[in-house]
């Protein structure tokens, strides 16, 4: 059974906060976030395919992937500002369909009783940009992607 994902987007602020626990050690959950081959297996909803074209998950490294289905692929890119193994990833993100709308994501990884708790805080350039991301199904993609990550970690 999957653990619940909590996504919070309070009115009037350009933030999205996500929290989730996984029944796996921190090292495995972190690796699934920084290894491009593993990332492509779980990121996003089941109905999409993710093609990672660049993923240098080191401090100062850049990333780019495309995700989509038969109706089209959508590009995402950014820069890793801080990658602290098994603890922290700080990175920018930008959707190619909304150029110049760069956000900042901080994800922490914490061991809690042999499980892993991740907490992500995303800052968008405006409340409108955040609301546009939410309206495109971001919540659904995050929840289903984490369910896919559960399956990958259990395998």
TrEMBL record:
Superkingdom assignment: Bacteria
Protein family (similarity comment): Belongs to the AHA1 family.
SUPFAM superfamilies xref list: Bet v1-like
The name this protein goes by in its record: Polyketide cyclase
Domain Activator of Hsp90 ATPase homologue 1/2-like C-terminal: 23-153
InterPro entries, sorted: ASHA1/2-like_C (IPR013538), START-like_dom_sf (IPR023393)
């Amino acid at each position: 059974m999957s653990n619940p994902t909590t996504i919070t987007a309070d009115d009037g602020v350009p933030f999205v906060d996500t929290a989730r626990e996984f029944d796996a050690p921190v090292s495995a959950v972190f690796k699934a976030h920084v290894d491009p081959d593993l990332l492509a297996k779980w990121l996003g909803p089941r109905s999409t395919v993710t093609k990672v074209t660049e993923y240098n998950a080191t401090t100062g490294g850049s990333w780019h992937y495309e995700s989509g289905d038969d109706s089209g692929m959508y590009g995402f890119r950014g820069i890793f500002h801080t990658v602290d193994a098994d603890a922290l990833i700080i990175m920018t993100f930008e959707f190619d369909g909304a150029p110049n709308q760069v956000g900042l994501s901080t994800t922490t990884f914490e061991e809690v009783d042999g499980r892993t708790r991740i907490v992500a805080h995303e800052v968008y350039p405006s409340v409108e940009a955040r609301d546009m991301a939410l309206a495109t199904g971001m919540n659904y993609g995050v929840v289903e992607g984490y369910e896919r990550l559960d399956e990958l970690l259990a395998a």
